[in-house]
Amino acid sequence: MIQGCGVARPKPWNIDDELWAVIEPLLPKVERRTRHPGRKRHPDRLVFQGIQFVLHTGTAWEHLPQELGFGSGMTCWRRLAEWAEAGVWPRLHEALLVRLRSANALDFSRAAADGSHIRALKGAPRRDEAPLTRAERAASII
C-alpha cells in the first residue's frame, strides 16, 4: 500500500468561503484616498492567508514566498499589526467560539486551567467573607 495516496488535505492557511464570511466583517474597512490614491491595497483575504502561512510554518516574515500571492512579508506583518490595533483578533476569537459552541464542536475533556496567569493575592479575603476594615487589619498585626 502506498502511503500518502488519497484526497489531499487543504493547507491550514487556505481560508474557505464559509470561514471568510465570518472573518471579513470583522476587518476594518480602509477607503482609498481619492486625490492621491497610491498603490492599490493587497486583498485582505490573501494577506490573511499570508499571516496564517507565516504563523503556521514559522517562516520569517521577510521569507514569505512571493509566488504564493499573499503579498510581501512586510505587507502581511503591517496588516497583522493594523488588525491587532483595531481589535480584530479578540473579536475573531469570540466569533469562532460562538460558532463552535453552537455547533457543539468544543471538547473541554482535555482542557487544563493554568493558574500561573492569575494573580494570587496573599491574605486576600475570600469572596464569601467581608473585607477587613483598616482598624481590624491593624489589630491583627499586633
Shape: elongated
Tell me the distance between the termini: 80 Å
Number of separate strands: 0
Helix and strand run: HHHHH
pLDDT under 50 segments (min length 5)?
none
Structural class: mainly alpha
Q: What is the overall number of helices?
A: 5
Helix percentage? 40-55%
Question: What is the C-alpha radius of gyration, as a whole number of Å?
Answer: 24 Å
Assembly form of the protein: single chain
Largest sheet at a glance? none
Mean pLDDT over the full residue set: 85
Strand content: under 5%
Note down, in words, how this protein is organized.
Helices cover 40% and strands 0% of the residues. It has helices spanning 17-23, 44-57, 73-85, 88-102, 134-141. The N and C termini lie far apart (80 Å).
